Automatic annotation (TrEMBL):
Its main location: membrane. InterPro entries: MetI-like, MetI-like_sf. Keywords: Membrane, Transmembrane, Transmembrane helix, Transport. GO terms for biological process: transmembrane transport. The chain crosses the membrane at residues 24-43, 89-110, 131-152, 172-198, 219-239, 279-299. Belongs to the binding-protein-dependent transport system permease family. Residues 85-300 form the ABC transmembrane type-1 domain. This is Sugar ABC transporter permease.
Length: 313
């Protein structure tokens, strides 16, 4: 049996070597991406060890004292951490419920347009904000919502409503964060879903038209089921980044007047880690976020496979 097994392994490795030699240009093209992920994603993972140390920048990782799970205990015992975690979860849920479906709806609507010039113009308009940095988006939103010169308050004044300082009240900050994200990034998701729609076999629509199906019925019975694998993959990826809402996305809008409902884990890590130099403590928070994200992906992938048969792996 051992001889047969060795022969099989030799034949299998020889087949793989031939396959790699045949498609070596593809492997060469993927090499820069692999090197990038190894250097900037996998090598920094070794630095997570300082979450279990009382890290000292002068002593380094090798000379810093080990403290075990003390930083994780401190994280949950800290009075401000629970409200910050609550803000992160709520904003993530709002983004998942309101922002995630928008690109799908836009893609379905754009797909129904028959005037190609108008379709390209609308597609370009909704896609352009994706290329703007959050600093520029923040400046635009601040200008639009300004209590003295903003267009929103100007319209409210015409209706007899007193000016509202939107960025100075806790009640509006979460809506502003989610709404600005929809305006900035919905165009990117729309492009992905339009590409998935373009790959649908046109014969399916022709058969549906011959059977007398309306456009709405074609969308519900052909388009949406056909792009469901793409929807599932993007949904699972967003779930994996559930606690990673984005530092710059929140920081440009954050101020002492709205921080009660606006501060999230990323901005707290910046304040505690870089400003206050609590490196080990904030590394523990980052490790906590990574573990939660991994767990959400695994659970979401299993539930997705049971419900739709589609998943990331």
């Amino acid at each position: 049996m051992s001889v047969i097994r060795m022969t099989y392994q030799f034949a299998s490795s020889r087949h793989k070597w031939k396959f790699m030699r045949k498609y070596w240009p593809l492997y060469a093209l993927s090499l820069p991406g692999i090197i990038y992920f190894v250097i900037f994603r996998y090598v920094p993972l070794f630095g997570s060890v300082i979450a279990f140390q009382n890290y000292n920048i002068f002593k380094g990782i090798g000379g810093s004292a080990w403290v075990g799970l003390d930083h994780f205990k401190r994280m949950f015992e800290y009075a401000e951490f629970v409200p910050i975690l609550k803000n992160t979860i709520l904003i993530g849920l709002y983004d998942l419920c309101f922002a995630f479906p928008v690109p799908i709806v836009l893609a379905l609507l754009l797909n129904e347009l028959r005037i190609m010039a108008y379709k390209r113009i609308v597609q370009t308009v909704v896609y352009m904000p994706h290329f703007l940095s959050w600093v520029i988006v923040g400046g635009i939103v601040v200008g639009v919502l300004s209590p003295s010169t903003g267009i929103v308050n100007h319209v409210l004044s015409l209706l007899g409503v007193d000016p509202i300082y939107f960025l100075g009240e806790n009640g509006y900050i979460r809506s502003i964060l989610v709404g600005s994200g929809i305006w900035k990034d919905s165009g990117w998701g729309t492009i992905i879903y339009l590409a998935a729609i373009a790959g649908i076999n046109p014969d399916l629509y022709e058969a549906a038209q011959m059977d007398g199906a309306s456009r709405l019925r074609q969308v519900s019975s052909i388009t949406i089921p056909s792009i469901l694998p793409t929807i599932v993959i993007l949904f699972l990826l967003q779930i994996g980044n559930f606690l990673d809402f984005g530092f710059e996305r929140v920081f440009v809008f954050l101020n002492p007047l709205n921080s009660e409902n606006g501060e999230i884990i990323d901005t707290y890590v910046y304040r505690a880690g870089l400003v206050d130099r609590q490196y080990s403590y904030t590394t523990a928070i980052g490790l906590f976020k990574s573990v939660v994200g991994l767990a959400l992906i695994v659970i979401g992938n299993k539930l997705s496979k049971k419900a739709t048969g589609e998943g990331l792996y």
